[in-house]
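A common beginner's mistake is to predict each chain separately and then try to dock the pieces by hand. The better habit, illustrated here, is to supply every component at once so that their relative placement is modeled jointly.
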Amino acid sequence: MTLMDDINDITKRAVEELEAKHRAPQLTSKQYVEVHRGLKCPYCLDDFIVIGSVEVDEEGAQAHNTCMVCDKEWNEIYQLVGYREV
Ligand SMILES: [Zn+2]
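With all components supplied together, the output reads:
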């Protein structure tokens, strides 16, 4: 491998990382919920995601999720819809 090959390789990887970092989501919030039930990354559509624990504050409940494939992160929003007897 020549020096030029190494430089080209490093440049290509840096460009790919930058593109991934600035990638726009491919799913709307509605599609995320209704089509994929929150089981796919809204950026790369892979299902290898880590769903964070649900945190509740005065604005509501949300979980901070991470995609293990593209490294993107997003907040999943939860809504209270009722209760069940135990
Ligand atoms: Zn992803």
